[in-house]
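Give me structure tokens for this 202-residue protein.
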Amino acid sequence: LSIHSAFVQYHTQIGQHWYEKLSSNLDEEEAITPNKEMATKALNHFEQVAAIGLIEPDFLKMQMASLYLVFDRTEDARNQLERLTEDPRANLKAHYRLAILESKENNLEAASTHFNQVIEAEPTDPEEYFMKSASLVRMAELAQNKNDEKRAVTLLIAATEAYNQNMEAWVALASHYVRTNDSERAIKSLEKVLALDAESAL
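Here you go.
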């Protein structure tokens, strides 16, 4: 193991340790706000590696993007995520995260581009099915903002089909039916919401 390689391995492993500790802390304490001390330690180590241009594994780029967002370093997060999207298959998650980021900044055209990348891909695991469903919900919201309820309901139905366990999709669909005075379909959608809520409580 060369000195150069040892440097990279050391900072990658220590950064990964603090990132996992941060994630575990959020899960165990059900915290909303990340522990910034842990986030700082993780990011400092990852940036040591990035400084010599060796943040190569995709999962590390994703983790760096997450850490930048903890500190509202939006442009740094965007740069990491955009590098990930250079591989169109590998990084549906990067497209999804970018879409959320652009939505928050009201860059709706850019957000739509990234949401559509997720929607058009064929999911291969539960997380990708969820992201596809969530992206369809977001695109439905954009359609509703343009008073295009017909397109919105088409997208919302597709969202429930893409990932049947996505409670947000069912709530949005129920809300659409309430707005359009379709009480029968609204009730059926709300019954699904209640069933999912009961399952999550078990």
